[in-house]
Amino acid sequence: MDKANILKQERETTWRIELRKKIKNKDRTSIERVKMPEADPSERRRSFMEVNRGLTSEAAMTEASRCLDCPTPTCIEGCPVGINIPKFIKNIERGEFLEAARVLKETSSLPAVCGRVCPQEKQCEANCFYTRKLKKPAVAIGYLERFAADYERETGNISIPKKAASKNKKIACIGSGPAGLSFAGEMAKRGYDVTVFEALHEIGGVLKYGIPEFRLPNNIVDVEIESLKKLGVKFETNFIVGKTATIEELKQEGFEGFFVGSGAGLPRFMGIPGENLVGILSSNEYLTRVNLMEANKEDSDTPILKGKRVAVIGGGNTAMDSVRTALRLGAEKAMIIYRRSEEEMPARVEEIKHAKEEGVEFLTLQNPIEYLGDNKGYVRQIRVQRMKLGEPDASGRRRPIPVEGDEYLLDVDTVVVSVGVAPNPLIPQSMPDLKTTSWRTLEVDQESLQTSVPFMFAGGDIVRGGATVILAMGDGRKAANAMDQQLSKNLESSVKE
Amino acid sequence: MNKVVRKEFFSENVVCLEVEAPRIAKARRAGHFVIVRVDKKGERIPLTISSADVDKGTITLVVQRVGVTSKKLTDLEPGECVADLVGPLGQATDVKKVGTVLACGGGVGVAPLLPIVEAFKKAGNKVVSVLAARTKDLIILEKQIREYSDDVLIMTDDGSYGEKGLITEGMEKVIAREKIDEAVIIGPAIMMKFAAEVTRKHGIPSIASLNTIMVDGTGMCGACRVTVDGKTKFVCVDGPEFDAHKVDFDEMLLRLNGYKDFEKNAYERYNRMQQ
Ligand SMILES: Cc1cc2nc3c(=O)[nH]c(=O)nc-3n(C[C@H](O)[C@H](O)[C@H](O)COP(=O)(O)OP(=O)(O)OC[C@H]3O[C@@H](n4cnc5c(N)ncnc54)[C@H](O)[C@@H]3O)c2cc1C
Ligand SMILES: Cc1cc2nc3c(=O)[nH]c(=O)nc-3n(C[C@H](O)[C@H](O)[C@H](O)COP(=O)(O)OP(=O)(O)OC[C@H]3O[C@@H](n4cnc5c(N)ncnc54)[C@H](O)[C@@H]3O)c2cc1C
Ligand code: SF4
Ligand code: SF4
Ligand code: FES
User: What Pfam families does the record tag this protein with (chain A) (predicted)?
Assistant: First the structure.
């Protein structure tokens, strides 16, 4: 049976029919969208506490009752992994929170994470009936997803999925970001013996070293990692595949399948004069020092520059995370410098809103063209060029062009450059026969995510460039599926022989 | 894992540690380094792999005490472990037969120099080494360097051992005496800067191994960036060795001081706590 029919059939289960009858659609649509309780801006701007506090059960059930359980749920089209959205939401409406969490886990390995960090306003919520047809605020799908996942975790009811009989096959997963974690979980469920190799000393990839605690507390990621360990997944930290051991050596040690989820961890700089002055750092360095090395804490040995006037260059999530981190480290002035207008900013709408509430200044349609330092090599000023918007470029966004002659000097003591990332070259460098694209991402078959090396699959940012958590996670599952099929086929043919 | 199996003081502040790391011992080549994090609150610091014993599964690090992390590390006793150890990192030295190699090591820079001297010697080169330090006690690994050098010249600032003078004077002497085909320069940034000027003057191709500040050591942060030939390079993945005549040492010196006040305070705090 195809997907659409399954959805239809599930929609016709008795409890859902009854639930639909309980409240008239007119009444459902007149309920106002729930507001996420948030920590007070004046308090949270100096603390790493989580900003979004989560919905209460009552608020979640009310919000869930806004969902119309549409016959053609277009919201699902907007979700990159196709979560059965009405099914989990209707479970919340009837108070079956654990069942809602179970529905989420059918398709997503990290619902507590995605509920927090997905750009919902561009994905599921953009395609909700409310947004599309009623021109009203969408059902708060992300908040509800987070609610169900948090409920399951906080009540200690996390179900460990059933595991297939052991297949006695060793699988290597390179990188422990969302792509790697979801791949590892899927393969372990299918009975494979999975080892995740991670270059850093912490597991979680960007979820740990990039996204700050005020947006995604580490313990949420840790719980997911614990579940994977219970499933039998092994983790080797401080292990750089291609350096500590080559793929060839791992093959000799018995690993039969490889998944590359090594991410797009390389920072880009702009290449403008003065960019190597002291006090100018990449957002990766800035965030790593705080999130991975805990440099914000008194007892950590890792130093961090606690600038008073901090400028962050860029308009993505990474830029927002950096500028809000600057505030929390004590900045008096924390600024975003972005070359387009706010409308084009790639960051999640919620992050921009939160940043503004916390007092971040937005210098839009401006771009740094030079950094000026003092005689000790510390950055002191930015030469800022004012911009205007021209014709749309390949990405569909209007291209920023300099307003000739309109520039000024801005005083700063710390600059965080957050203008994008490039794919991690470690794996391609260590495997010459692995095909890459002109973007230096790995070339894969769109369906199976198989690379040019048959036993190797890849997904997440190493394939897509800087993308999203949910896409990386979806890739991990997809690749697991394809690898499992391939290895099972090999097994069958070897049995026949 | 990562257990210290042997510890030896080369001088009051220079300590040699042999650490269990079987995979790294096997994979490493001359020029490679590791990143070490001593304990759960520790920072990540880069250290060159001075030598390795594949059979025992150990690597040797030679560490100079300059701040908190190097102090904590050198305070470890055999049997204790470092929390994290990752490597081998960086590009290995491009070792070829070129003729006569002038190996210049300043201070603790002799530790990273040792595997390179060994590799050049084994590749059939004549190797002349110049080792320099402020004073006699700070000359390290002399015996090991002698083992792989055809000639060794020792220079001390105060004349307490070898000849009195700076490393550059020792280098000039060797260059006046014989034809040098390539130079390898490793030491404090300021020493490398002046040593590179000497070989530039004489038109000798030279490599320097840069010791910038690092965080991850895998190309992820850019803390280690330097300007080489007008272009920004990441020392941890593009280096640590570069054409010594193209490195912007002045910029590197400024960047090394980026966290100086913090480091000084942290070291004072740590020493107070120890008392
Ligand atoms: C600051 C920041 C904020 C973001 N905010 C959001 C957001 O709000 N919403 C959203 O959807 N997305 C966000 N993103 C993007 C999202 O985090 C990434 O798209 C996603 O993490 C990619 O997952 P991945 O598994 O492909 O790689 P990563 O998460 O990058 O993980 C890759 C891992 O592989 C390891 N590795 C690399 N090479 C090797 C090797 N050779 N051997 C062993 N290990 C290796 C790395 O150390 C790393 O831990 C953000 C990114 C950043 C940096
Ligand atoms: C590729 C590479 C290989 C290295 N190999 C070795 C080695 O084999 N043995 C060894 O002893 N050291 C080596 N270093 C240097 C070593 O990493 C630093 O000495 C160490 O990070 C200092 O940490 P700390 O916390 O003890 O001192 P900190 O508190 O960080 O610094 C104390 C003082 O030392 C200065 N300093 C900091 N970092 C460096 C540096 N990288 N170089 C010079 N001065 C610095 C600071 O300006 C400060 O004044 C290497 C560095 C690199 C990049
Ligand atoms: S995973 Fe993301 S896109 Fe999919 S339903 Fe959840 S919040 Fe929406
Ligand atoms: S489109 Fe909106 S209202 Fe319809 S099922 Fe999806 S979430 Fe509910
Ligand atoms: S140390 Fe982070 S990029 Fe080199």
Answer: Fer4_20 (PF14691), Pyr_redox_2 (PF07992)
Ligand with an atom nearest the CA of residue A74: 4
Report which of A13, A426, A366 is spatially closest to residue A197, judged by C-alpha positions.
A426
Q: Do B41 and A200 touch (CB under 8 A)?
A: no
B-chain residues near A379 (CB < 8 A): none
What is the average per-residue pLDDT within A36-40?
94
Q: How many CB atoms sit inside 10 A of residue B253's CB?
A: 15
* Stretch (H or E) spanning A256: strand A255-260
Fold (topology level) of A267-421: FAD/NAD(P)-binding domain (3.50.50)
Residue A385 has pLDDT above 70, yes or no: yes
Domain boundaries, chain A: 22-155, 170-265+423-496, 267-421
- Domain holding B228, by residue range, is 100-257
* B191 & B136 share domain: yes
| Residue written as token pair 């190097």 | B70
Under an 8 A CB cutoff, do A301 and B266 touch?
yes
A199: Cα separation from own chain's centroid: 19
Yes or no: say if A480 and A449 are a contact pair by the CB < 8 Å rule.
no
What is the fold of A170-265+423-496?
Answer: FAD/NAD(P)-binding domain (3.50.50)
Rounded to whole angstroms, how far apart are CA atoms A316 and A347?
4
Report the C-alpha gap between A292 and A312 in whole angstroms.
20
Cβ neighbours for A79, distance < 8 A, ≥ 6 positions apart: A85, A123, A124, A470
Cβ–Cβ < 8 Å for B138, B11? yes
Of the candidates B103, B115, B109, the residue with the CA atom closest to the CA atom of residue B50: B115
Average pLDDT over residues A488-493: 74
Residue A160 has pLDDT above 80, yes or no: no
Q: Tokens 């505030």 sit at which residue? A: A327
Residue B113 sits at φ, ψ, to 5 deg, of: -70, -35
Burial A421-447 (b: 16+ CB within 10 A, else e): bbbbbbbbeebeebebeeeebbebeee
